[in-house]
TrEMBL record:
Originating organism: Bacillus aerolatus
Protein name: Universal stress protein
Start and end residues of each UspA domain: 1-139
Superkingdom per UniProt: Bacteria
CDD domains assigned to the protein according to its UniProt record, in alphabetical order: USP-like
Annotated Pfam families: Usp
SUPFAM superfamilies membership: Adenine nucleotide alpha hydrolases-like
Record-stated family: Belongs to the universal stress protein A family.
Xref: InterPro entries: Rossmann-like_a/b/a_fold, Universal_stress_UspA, UspA
Length: 139
């Protein structure tokens, strides 16, 4: 049923809870896999480059944000891959889900970018409107 699950990850508490749900679903489905998708927002990327010491520091910080997600999936014995995209998070997650024909998108209800949620209606809302598969929004 849900053999190919997309987990939208940003390192927020809601995103980590979403990882637990994705792992729980995937571990009960033989041959399932989870794609962890981390989208680097263009505006955040510019800010990071201007305010950080080096690209290596930036990459380490991003990797640390994804580590809890990976540990949850590893501990559940779930096959996963990590994908990184650049762009507007809602659009990038929806485009990835539609392009690769995922069976389920699992996403946290709130992320790290509070201003974007307030002004634009939230990444999870955009994803739910644009994808062609079921979406689980985790609080």
């Amino acid at each position: 049923m849900y053999k190919h699950i997309l987990l939208a990850a940003d390192g927020s508490d809601h995103s980590i809870r979403a990882a637990r749900h994705a792992a729980e679903i995937a571990r009960h489905i033989p041959d399932s896999k989870v794609d962890i998708l981390f989208v680097i927002d263009y505006n955040q990327s510019k800010s990071d480059i201007l305010h950080k010491d080096s690209i290596i520091t930036i990459q380490k910080e991003r990797s640390l944000r994804l580590k809890p997600h990976e540990e949850i999936l590893q501990n559940a014995g779930v096959a996963y891959t990590v994908k990184v995209k650049h762009g507007e998070p809602g659009s990038a997650v929806a485009a990835y889900a539609n392009e690769f024909g995922v069976d389920l998108v699992v996403i946290g209800s709130r992320g790290l970018n509070k201003l974007q949620e307030f002004v634009l209606g939230g990444v999870s809302h955009k994803v739910a409107k644009r994808v062609k598969c079921p979406v689980m929004i985790v609080k």
